[in-house]
């Protein structure tokens, strides 16, 4: 049986491990942390991600602990509408910890090795900090934005950051499956439903690199005059629940292979979070990898995977950066983006959104 070594036990690494095991490969996933800790609070899983989870056989487990997303709203700080739409296919909002546990449980027994720090990786070989050297027919870098396989350029700071959190339970009705984001000038809030009355929310603002992130009182102050669901979510959040973040990303990748190593997730295409496609694209990577590994020799897998994925991820990295201009660009650009989103007919906007949120047919795309 062919064997693969996957470096990194996040969403990208776990889903890649599931994909290769379904393609009848022997898989080991190496994670340097002694236990899996979710980085971040929750993830939007748009229709493409849900379709990918179905292909990997994990959708029922994820769906059982997630909340459905039936519509999306992009509004202004005073509650005005910029864009809204119904979601035609299944979409979910999942706590990151729940998604990671569902993926971990779907791996073959013993495939995940915790506490394994990889020092170096090259084609067919990885060196672990304890002195062990492992060899395989395929090495996959799922190590996130600090990819161990190396990168052509360092990640760039996107000019904004903030905090995100999971609230405590909130009494009363929810949003009936609405995923909402509200734009001010240079700042924005997002708020989404989770099971048991919890909310996932975030606050992002334009700021210099290395700025101090806001605390819970500053978030509550900033939210004055914003829609009620934002204020309620913040009020129900413990002060120590905030997770600070500064957004870093890379330019569209020129390749998904480096030094003989295949890259997935942020190791391959670290993008800004403005489309909610980071985890979704990691899951798409896994589906493409599953088909490439099922129908090609070990030497051809990288070429087949890149053929299936490169153009799409380049497009999404560009689109994610452009979407951020509606809040974090120059004031004139912000106004232009918002006006365009309001006036563009649905007949033109829907195909573009659907292209981003629907899973391509990777079986045929991985044919060489």
Automatic annotation (TrEMBL):
Ribosomal protein among keywords: no
UniProt-listed Pfam families: FAD_binding_3, NAD_binding_8
The FAD-binding domain, residue ranges: 198-319
SUPFAM superfamilies, alphabetized: FAD/NAD(P)-binding domain (SSF51905)
Gene3D superfamilies assigned: FAD/NAD(P)-binding domain (3.50.50.60)
Keyword annotations of the record: Monooxygenase, Oxidoreductase
GO molecular function: FAD binding; monooxygenase activity
Oxidoreductase found in the keyword field: yes
InterPro entries, per database record: FAD-bd (IPR002938), FAD/NAD-bd_sf (IPR036188), MOase (IPR044560)
Family under the similarity heading: Belongs to the 3-hydroxybenzoate 6-hydroxylase family.
Protein name: FAD-binding domain-containing protein
Organism this protein belongs to: Erythrobacter litoralis
Phylogenetic classification of the source organism: Bacteria, Pseudomonadati, Pseudomonadota, Alphaproteobacteria, Sphingomonadales
